[in-house]
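pinging the channel bc i need a second pair of eyes. not urgent but kinda urgent?? the chain im working w is below, pasted from the shared doc
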Amino acid sequence: MTSVLLIDKGITDYSDAWEEQKELFSRVQNNMLADQNYLMLCEHPHVYTLGKSGNENNLLVNDDFLRSVGATYFKTDRGGDITYHGYGQLVGYPILNLNNFGLGLKDYIELLEETVIRTIADYGINGGRLAGATGVWIETDSPNARKICAIGVKASRFVTMHGFALNVNTDLKYFSYINPCGFIDKGVTSIQNETGKKVDMDEVKIRYVRHFAEVYKCKIK
């Protein structure tokens, strides 16, 4: 069975996590015959990140305002548009050799969505997919469709990096400063917002890791 090494970084700056991702990404690419895969979990201090094909106009505030709310901004090499990361959000960065899993990129992303769908189901939340949009959504067939998890990945030579951001106890007001993922007509939500109570982050991590192992049929070390 394919193995994945879990790295729990706790609260860590986005730039530090990105540098570590790049190191692990290069390590896997340089040793493609090995069963070498990683899952990094963390929370970030307030930060906005823009995907390589994203529109900078989807950031609705200027640098001075970002500083006033304690947020930073990065242009990244992942797919997708702009998103927010912050305290109370579970961010996951799988650095996987897809050859180890027998997966193409499309299937990998669908399974990544499935790991989140199963996790939020543990809290009584029915998540799903929205046509034409990656990530995990609530009430996808209604005008009240809202995103609970953003997904943006990079893959090169069958190795992945970047990943997902699941809103757990996230302060949703920070999404009002952007057009999340480029959408101007869709809302965002969190586990806390949907259930009406704060959720223990360590518990969410445990549940998520279990579902990740089930979905990708791997052993977490």
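so The chain has a mean pLDDT of 93. and The helical segments are 14-29, 63-68, 98-101, 105-121, 191-195, 201-216. — does that match what u expected or am i reading it wrong
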